[in-house]
Amino acid sequence: MKWIGTSWKMNNDIRQTQQYINTLVKNKKYLKKKNFKFFIIPPYTSLTSFQKYLRDLPIVLGAQNIHHQDSGPFTGEVSASMVKSCGCKIVEIGHAERYKYFNETDILVNKKIIQAINNNLIPLICFGEEKKISNLLLRKKKLIKKIKIIFKSVNLKKNKKIILAYEPVWAIGKKNAASAVYVSETVNIIREHFIKKLNFFQNQIIVIYGGSVNKNNAE
């Protein structure tokens, strides 16, 4: 099963969201692919607009972030239960922009992953190296160091899944994506570590790629 989706970042108001949904409804036959799951991660303000169509559209709805606590005096934050009540099944955690603009850390991302799992949300965890590392051993060392922190004490039941969004920071929003060979090498590193070292099952790990993907290089 291949997962393909889009995160809107801070784009599209309610009117624009509805226009997008109307187009999806008209073309929903193209979303009915046997071996594919399509997801959309819009801003919080657009979640309830999508919720009305979840029975009609073959998509998975996601949120762009959650707080690591259940509730409390955290003005401007949104909890896992709140996004679930809007129909979300997945939540994006740890995007490079959260680190860059909002001072998030690997330790905080770890708390959010645990919070998502505890609330039966599938965490879609973004991670990748800041600079391109051609040397495979150095790349492996860099990524595994990060994985050890953000997945500390993370346990999954056999019927639960995680989505690992490999997004090399150096490729996000740039002209060129990472090459297929570079991505393949990295994904193999990731899968091997999760199965052999973290004791995850093969079917629990969904790996996707992000970083300058467009209609010309998506295939």
Short synopsis of the structure:
Helices cover 35% and strands 17% of the residues.
Characteristic terms for this protein:
seven-stranded parallel β-sheet; 35% helix; 219 residues; 7 helices; alpha/beta
Description:
With 219 residues, this protein is an alpha/beta fold. Helix content is 35%, strand content 17%. The chain has 7 helices and 7 strands; from the N terminus they run βαβαβαβααβαβαβ. The chain has helices spanning 14-26, 47-51, 80-85, 96-102, 106-118, 136-150, 180-196; strands at 2-7, 36-41, 59-63, 90-93, 122-127, 162-166, 205-209. A 7-stranded parallel β-sheet has the order 1-2-3-4-5-6-7. Helix 6 crosses helix 7. The longest helix has 17 residues, at 180-196. The protein is globular and about 45 Å long. The model has no long low-confidence stretch (mean pLDDT 93).
